[in-house]
Amino acid sequence: MRRTAGVGVMGVAAFIGMRGAFQIAVPLFLLGLGLFGVPTGGFAWNRKSPGQRSRVSTSMLSMELDHDSGSMDGEILAGTFARRKLSELSAAELAQFHRECSRAPDQSGALLEAWLDRARPGWRDAWHPGSAGAARAETAMSREEAYAVLGLKPGAGRDEIRSAHRRLMKEFHPDRGGSDYLAAKINRAKDVLLQD
Questions:
Q1: Is residue 113 within 8 Å of residue 104, measured between CB atoms?
Q2: How many domains does the chain divide into?
Q3: Of 9, 53, 140, 148, which sits 20 to 30 A from 17 (CA to CA)?
Q4: Tens of pLDDT along 128-163?
Q5: CA distances to 86, 129, 141, 186 from 171, in Å
Q6: Is residue 108 part of a domain?
Q7: Comparing C-alpha atoms, which of 119, 126, 65 is closest to residue 95?
Q8: How far, in Å, CA of 114 to CA of 32, rounded?
Q9: Is 62 exposed, middle or buried (0-12, 13-18, 19+ CB in 10 A)?
């Protein structure tokens, strides 16, 4: 498991390095080497003590890697979703946070994209306007997923559903810089919840 995590972390580091964020990429790469089992000159993460974690922070988020399991999650430090975990956000919320991180002056966007590459493979194709994302969004959707897409609690009323749909479409419609995939997901969620 540690070797797999090491390869994953090195991949994330390579991606971040290609984007020019060497101050984040180099420590992540060394961490990946340590997890993979390659000696890295006595860095703390090369020692195999249980419960060890590494953290990389930017102005918008703080990413943490659990050395034992290889799991990675981030805590949002600023913006609309401050004090929440990345893993708790819906696809629509992640897209909104991605736009916020892209406007940050540091490497917040690159760090979030590295997490998305690992946690949500295919997100780039899905969020790119004009992609085949709309067709992919038409797959079966449970009521629970529909509530999550719209950011509502189960049992929300018809007016709340319509209001959430309108609000999200104003933000994620392809004509406003959103993606076909997200717009289709939002529309599908409304349809699932309003069908009788």
A1: no
A2: 2
A3: 53
A4: 544 444 444 445 778 888 888 888 899 999 999 999
A5: 20, 14, 21, 11
A6: no
A7: 126
A8: 14
A9: middle
